[in-house]
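Translate structure to sequence.
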């Protein structure tokens, strides 16, 4: 040793069984204990040992067990190679640097016990030649490419499963290789999923740095569970068209921020909520059947979506904040377009429906915030009809409700012939200037029906229009002179409460006679 007793240079003991390493030692030098006959090595408490150099314990052929202090951070090349009787090695603390061939020719090594914290094994041939036979973990530990040369049994405390292995691709699987529990690869670019795999467990690849996932031909993959690939921020494409996957669980690909395209095809594929949420660079989705809640929410680069015929449901906020989506085709099989399905799709200009379709439910706010929407193709189903970029609903009483008008449609004049104009149906409609309500048609205008129609100038109120809710014309400040057939005091007050300014009503010829005979008409 040196005089400070911080470095061990060599061991010159003869016929020793064990030795205690002083706590002052920081470094064990190259080949220091090589070829010794020691059976055990003990480290004093509060050891300061940080580095074990190349071949330090090579060919210690009687060494059976060793427990490395928590202080150890560096283990250099082949440090324990050739320890023929070594059965157990324990890391009490995480190692920062392990070099190649640590256990080569340790043919009887049965257990390597890892620390109660995560660490990275960045070396070649850590597991080789059937040694160690088992590794035990309490925390996820990452292994670099080439560190696992042979399939090795593992015990992982947080999995209730006894028969687990780590493959040469650092995948934690059951011994039958039908389920993937976790991916423990460090600095991998791509991974191949064996065809034997039926299920990828929740969080299995979460936060990995993979750029590509390859599925073997004739894959038996059936399900991808919750958050399995969440925040895999380097993956660019997903293609599962050739697979027989039946279900993709919630958050499965959430936050894969560099994912640009997804190809799906299976007609029985079920996709659960938030599956592709916040995939910011996702531009193209092909062949999707199931579109649940928040499915593509936050995918602000999404430009092209091919919804496969057979799809029945577009879920709540499924395309929320898809700012780049300009056009979408709705197959005739779709029955429900949910609340806020396309909320804030600011560049969405056209929605193409099949002329005859299966629509059973469109919510009033399905297209809320689609400020560029100018074109809705004409269509008809048992309950809905679209004409002149306006959607009507036929309720069970055979009443026709106007529920939505495209916010940026080019129409300046619209003839309305229905029973009810629903709330927010003309919300922020930019170009409408003249609403002509047919006689004997509309009986009710709901609150905020014409909210912020800033260019609306002309509207008529036929005698059949009996009820106008408060704020129906909120912020419609351009209305000039409504034509009002019912000049009763109560009716005029109702119109005023709907948002049409008192001064407008005073100036309007339609109420001039009423003003002369009863000035209270325009009083508060």
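Result:
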């Amino acid at each position: 040793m040196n005089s400070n007793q911080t470095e061990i240079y060599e061991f010159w003991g003869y016929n020793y069984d064990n030795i205690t390493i002083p706590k002052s030692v920081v470094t064990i030098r190259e080949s220091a204990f090589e070829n010794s006959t020691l059976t055990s090595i003990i480290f004093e408490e509060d050891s300061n040992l940080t580095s074990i150099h190349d071949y330090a314990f090579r060919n210690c052929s009687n060494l059976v067990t060793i427990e490395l202090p928590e202080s150890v951070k560096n283990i250099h090349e082949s440090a324990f190679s050739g320890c023929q009787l070594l059965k157990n090695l324990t890391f009490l603390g995480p190692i920062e640097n392990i070099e190649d061939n640590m256990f080569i020719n340790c043919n009887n090594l049965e257990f390597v016990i890892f620390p109660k914290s995560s660490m990275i094994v960045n070396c070649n041939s850590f597991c080789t030649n059937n040694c160690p036979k088992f590794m035990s973990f309490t925390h996820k530990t990452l292994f670099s490419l080439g560190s696992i040369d042979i399939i090795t049994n593992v015990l992982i405390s947080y999995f209730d499963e006894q028969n687990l292995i780590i493959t040469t691709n650092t995948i934690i699987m059951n011994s039958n290789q039908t389920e993937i529990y976790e991916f423990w690869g460090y600095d991998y670019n791509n991974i191949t999923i064996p065809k034997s795999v039926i299920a990828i467990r929740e969080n299995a690849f979460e936060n990995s740095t993979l750029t590509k996932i390859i599925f073997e031909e004739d894959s038996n993959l059936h399900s991808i569970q919750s958050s399995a690939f969440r925040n895999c921020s380097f993956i660019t494409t997903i293609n599962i068209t050739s697979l027989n996957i039946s279900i993709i669980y919630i958050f499965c690909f959430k936050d894969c921020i560099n994912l640009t395209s997804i190809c799906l095809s299976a007609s029985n594929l079920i996709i659960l909520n938030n599956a592709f949420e916040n995939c910011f660079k996702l531009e193209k989705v092909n062949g999707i059947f199931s579109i649940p809640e928040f499915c593509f929410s936050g995918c602000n680069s999404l430009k092209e979506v091919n919804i496969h015929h057979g799809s029945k449901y577009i879920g709540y906020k499924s395309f929320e904040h898809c700012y780049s989506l300009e056009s979408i085709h709705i197959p005739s099989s779709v029955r429900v377009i949910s609340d806020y399905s396309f909320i804030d799709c600011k560049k969405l200009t056209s929605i193409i429906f099949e002329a005859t379709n299966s629509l059973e439910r469109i919510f009033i706010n399905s297209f809320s915030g689609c400020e560029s929407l100018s074109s809705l193709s004409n269509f008809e189903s048992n309950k809905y009809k679209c004409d002149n970029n306006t959607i009507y609903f036929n309720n069970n009483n055979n009443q026709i409700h106007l529920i939505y008008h495209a916010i940026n449609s080019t129409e300046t004049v619209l003839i309305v012939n229905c029973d009810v104009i629903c709330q927010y149906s003309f919300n922020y409609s930019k170009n409408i200037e003249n609403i002509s309500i047919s006689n004997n048609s509309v009986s009710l205008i709901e609150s905020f029906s014409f909210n912020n129609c800033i260019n609306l100038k002309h509207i008529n109120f036929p005698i059949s229009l009996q009820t106008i809710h408060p704020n129906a014309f909120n912020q419609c400040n351009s209305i000039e002179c409504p034509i009002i057939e019912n000049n009763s005091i109560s009716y005029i007050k109702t119109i005023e409460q709907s948002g049409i300014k008192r001064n407008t009503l005073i100036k309007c010829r339609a109420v001039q006679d009423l003003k002369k005979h009863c000035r209270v008409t325009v009083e508060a």
